Queue: 4 jobs
Job 1
Amino acid sequence: MTGLLSLRNVSKVFTLGQREIRAVDDVSFDVEEGECLAIVGESGSGKSTIANMILGIYPPSMGTIAWRGDVLPARRELRHRRAIQLVQQNPLSSLNPRRSVGASLRLPLDVHGIGDRSHRADRVGRLLEEVGLPAEFMNRSPAALSGGQRQRVAIARALASESDLVVLDEPTSALDVLVQARVLKLLAELRDKRGLTYVFITHDLSVVRNIADRVAVFEKGCLRELGTTEAIFANPQHAYTRRLIAAVPVVTDAEVALRKRLMENDNAAA
């Protein structure tokens, strides 16, 4: 097995009464160290199920998931939970409203025994500064922060355990366009600074274009297409990928021409 993270012939089947629902169907791909792999698709495409299996929330029904060449157990060890962290879509629901920002950031330091106990408050302050927030924010409650500030705290919490891979599940979809751009810029800077690896879950290809190295396109639990971001946008091979790209808001003449060409190709194929 190659890559920092490797999925081989992974499927996930859920049982609903007498029915079986195949949410992910025989999927294989690698996530290379230091890259940002975007997993894109519409609602129900299986992308969030993939994220939950990577995190160990769901075990695969079939196939294997390996970390640095070793198959991950269904029940993850503490070292695996430390290495693979999550940033959720809604930062308000992901942060405990009864804990201060500082308490939320200190928790992973305590759980994983990171740093001296007496110096963990200093580490919390440095984490906040690293994501562009003043250290004194550690005394605030999540409710006192804006949406963008809360998402920065959620990112800081994912970094607190000194993780190697961060799963970002629609991390900017709840933010307005300006705040979204600032958070994406922060994620890119942190990736360069820390050598992080991202799995970026989203339905928004306009976001993917600005942050991802490669794109995996999912539809109905199946991996339809996988390639570099440049190749996916310049010459998508699958009809579903072409439809997704054709729906991206157009901002340049070149994109107008691409959208027209993709739509003409699909109409001709139909």
Job 2
Amino acid sequence: MTVRNRGALAAMAAGAAALTVAAVVACGSQPAEDVGADDAAALAVATPSPGASAPGGPSVPVTAGELPAGDATVPPVRLRIPAIDVTARVDPVGVNPRTDEFEVPPSVDRIGWYRYGPGLSADAGSVVIAGHVDSAEQGKGAFFRLRELDRGDTVTATGGDGTTREYRVVAREEYAKTKIPLDRYFARDGSPRLTLITCGGPFDPQTRRYRDNIVVTAVPV
């Protein structure tokens, strides 16, 4: 699977195709401010190791579309976030070949793990999970309240191996979809971390999309 357009991937397909007026008002509210941006950036700084690839190679594992090599990848199958009352099934997803966008599950109560990136057992890199904020037909999505998460909140991911892993939120950021640093959030290197993404900011009725992405970064505890 190949991503041919950086801007298309930034769109993430994490917003609904159409929204009710009430939903637009509710979801258009933004966090007071970003928190932990420096911490999130620091996690993406890789520590060179013997046999590491030479600098200058791609750090975002979406162009080749190959599954990570090495040990068996452990996919997340369920995510629980008590602070925002979320318990959601996680489906493995890739990129939609027609739209070149992150292929979030169509059911808004499910969320998608980017299966061409690291799994829960990886000792480096960003485990990316994205979800819908809402839908005119289905109502609030699993990540409807993702923008409310703050530093110190906990996220529990259950893997396909049956093991439960706990993470602590260290950052919450909001980006215009054309400005989100994909190299950072889809990297296979740097410290192990969990990256949660949904839509946010104002809703554009012409494009039928939210303008921004909300990105939450969490680290293993």
Job 3
Amino acid sequence: MERAYQILVVDDHKDIRDLLQRFLQQHGLRVMTAADGNEMYKHLNAQRFDLIILDLMLPGKDGITLCRELRAENNIPIIMLTALGEEVDRIVGLEVGADDYLAKPFNPRELLARIKSVLRRHFAIPNVEEQTSGTPKNYLFNQWLLNTTTRELRNPQQALIPLTSTEFTMLLAFLCHPNVVLSREDLLKLVQGRGADVYDRSIDTLISRLRKKIETDPKQPKLIKTIWGGGYQFSCEVSHDAH
């Protein structure tokens, strides 16, 4: 990695915290640890972190609750850890905004690889921007505004709506192709940046997360429509400017 990213490990098992801290520091990362949500917030209030490794089963507020709270405030990358390996747990973690998910027990090298992948996806220019020559700064749709420089999304009331890096890239893909039916394969090609870990089944989860943020009624979406047998369509007029 080109710079020493700051990582926060949140896990109630001291042995796991100490092991991950030693291992990740040996590979050029700066690491701090927390045993629960209270310690996590103390660290977050004191300094900036590039990524959080968040255990699902924690005393007090669990990882799902903490992840949901974090997502309501910022787009810091989150990798969730859990002793549970059921698919439903993975889906719930992704739905509340986790960028990746790893079941215990795991090889620390696999976690390191996932950290690198998530950080690349978060800090690198995504594929959809590379494919769009002269990407405009501002995209406007249905009185919403997406700023591609700051990666900020504002609703019609000008309130800031936090987006993960993958949610931002997915929304930008739609805004670059309004009123066009995009298959899951199309979306995968547009969303996958260098080292991005996006797979076919996660497209639906990303769509669900985006709908909850921009649709008036996510269960009856009017912006991101499902085209049965075809994929998805962003059914809205989109305008943009360069300033």
Job 4
Amino acid sequence: MSNRSWFYAANGQQQGPYPEAQLRDLITRGAVGADTLVWTEGMSGWQRAGEIPGLVPGGSGPPAYAQPGGPPPVGAGSYAGGALSIDVSIWELLWRSIVFVIGMVLVIPSPWVATWYYRWVFSRLYVPGRPNLAFTGQPLDIWYVFIAIGVLTYVGSADLYYLQYLSIPIQAVLAWMVIRWIAANLSSNGQQLPIAFNGSALGYIGWQVLLYVSFITIVGWAWVVTAWMRWICRNIDGTRREVIFTASGLEVLWRTLVFVIASFFIIPIPWVLGWYARWYASQFALAERGTMANA
């Protein structure tokens, strides 16, 4: 492998070829990361650097199968589908999440803080076949939605039960609008993606209400969340592959309980937050349309 020449993708452009020694130097300096797409002769397609055994410290993955010729076009997926993943450090995830919560509580900065947070999250998200994923939404696109969400954070402190119940469908509609906004503002390699979330507002309200009711069963909420995520995935259109949610209700239940219980002890929060975020992201995957996902 030491005599190979490597290519890597940056800003939607193919860079290289570079001798392996130079590529490793780029990795050391941070110019090439574990999520950067790379290719060398003998590989069937572009892969993340972290998936190449021995290339990135701590990285591992299946060996590439030989295929003659030059590198495929940047952005061409090396396989039809696969699980999503997120590459975040526990401390960065923690402080950014804290800033996000504070921004929502303060109401006025919520549109800017939310946009800033979503841009960071999607820049750290790896989607098979969609290199350099980015969120392109602007703070003032739906500023009124975030202001309303911020205001509703104070409803729970009100000693008026009817007001709290009334806020449930309102919160659902606001969350539905945020999801539609996010889906419509995703890009890959600088090109806008034709993605849309077409689930109905009424359907989203129904799931929100069902979630609240399911807490009566103590544990039933986990299966509601699982079914809800699958409904959301089924209503994502504009992609040549379908998005699926692979977690089972039992997995959602025990992992969420571990996260909540550990958070009561304060100190473990950064670690369990990173653990839970990485697991949750990995439960979303892309598959050829028509593939049945059983969980």
